[in-house]
Amino acid sequence: MIGDSSRSSQLTIEQANQAGQSLTSISQALRNLNSLNASIASATLQQTHVVDDINQNVTQAAQLSQSTALAAEQSTSASLHLRGLSEELNTLLKQFRV
Question: What is the pTM of this model?
Answer without folding.
Answer: 0.59
